[in-house]
Fold this sequence. Notes:
The chain is an alpha/beta fold. The chain has two domains: about 5-195, NAD(P)-binding Rossmann-like Domain (Rossmann fold, 3-Layer(aba) Sandwich); about 200-285, N-(1-d-carboxylethyl)-l-norvaline Dehydrogenase, domain 2. The chain is built from 13 helices and eight strands. The protein has an eight-stranded mixed sheet with strand order 3-2-1-4-5-6-7-8, sandwiched between helices. Helix 2 (about 25-35) links the parallel strand 1 (about 20) and strand 2. Helix 1 crosses helix 8, helix 2 (about 25-35) packs across helix 3 (about 50-65) and helix 9 packs across helix 12 (about 250-265). The radius of gyration is 20 Å and the shape is globular. The termini are far apart. Mean pLDDT is about 95; it is low at about 5-15. It binds nicotinamide-adenine-dinucleotide. Nicotinamide-adenine-dinucleotide (NAD) binds next to helix 2.
Amino acid sequence: MSADEQQSRHISRAIESISVLGAGTMGHGIAQVAAAAGYPVILHDINKEMLARGIQSIERNLIKGIQRGKLTEADRDQTLQRLRGTTHVSEAASADLVIEAAPERLELKQAILREVEASAQSPFIFATNTSSLSITELARAAEHPARVVGMHFFNPVHLMRLVEIVVGEATDEETVEAVLAVARRLKKEPITVRDVPGFASSRLGIALGLEAMRMVEQGVASAKDIDTAMELGYNHPMGPLRLTDVVGLDVRLHIAEYLHSTLGTENFRPPEILRRMVAAGKLGKKSGEGFYVWEE
Ligand SMILES: NC(=O)c1ccc[n+]([C@@H]2O[C@H](COP(=O)([O-])OP(=O)(O)OC[C@H]3O[C@@H](n4cnc5c(N)ncnc54)[C@H](O)[C@@H]3O)[C@@H](O)[C@H]2O)c1
């Protein structure tokens, strides 16, 4: 074991179990990597079907891992043995670390936080996977705001290495250290970011995406050539316009509007081309057309 691993094991001693609230796109992935790292995991969803679907997705991901030679059958079996699903939030409240991955609505996340606090028997850290909401605002609903923090994972969770640890105004050092250690044990690369709109990743990613759209608008180059500039010139795995198509133009418009209104800088004002395309139903991959045409 390296000195770094020893250090992270030492700090993470307090976190011995993890619950994930919400078994959707992000929640099932977080539960998978946590169980694979050796934590006993409870995956919770209010919706029985979503819970079953989340567990099926984990099973599918693990089978793909075996087919690619990344996992053994024993790895898969052990991961699944550590994982338990429930629709009762009181069961999920027994973990040392509760990671919330429910829909992106502040009042909902605050209600979930209060519910967990009301059922928990012992102290726990509440981490939210929010991609845009303020941790400080969320923590206002908490009895123990010092133990509320952001753990922003990326999709698909089992493949993407980044985790943004978002530090709210009230979050204490011990909480930050504990979730940094967990992120490392999940084999992720954590970065620490102050709680500002867009954190680090969305703010930079959106800035690049919006500038690329303005370049298309001004006829600087085609969407494909602008993407190629970033893919080959800067080694980005995917250019900013193709990425916009994959994420969804409506999703990016929503984030741009939010960043423009909160940060107030002109580079986040949504370009006309983005508004026009969203109004015309060109939402990217999911609608079949965005900056590219997507075949089935
Ligand atoms: N999808 C992404 O690419 C992505 C990336 C990073 C962060 N996020 C953030 O992760 C969070 C979850 O996003 P998602 O894409 O996984 O959403 P999703 O819609 O796929 O899943 C949300 C799940 O939460 C469940 N749920 C609803 N209310 C609940 C409650 N009270 N308690 C427990 N579960 C509840 C739903 O049944 C659903 O299964 C959001 O905050 C989102 O902003 C998403």
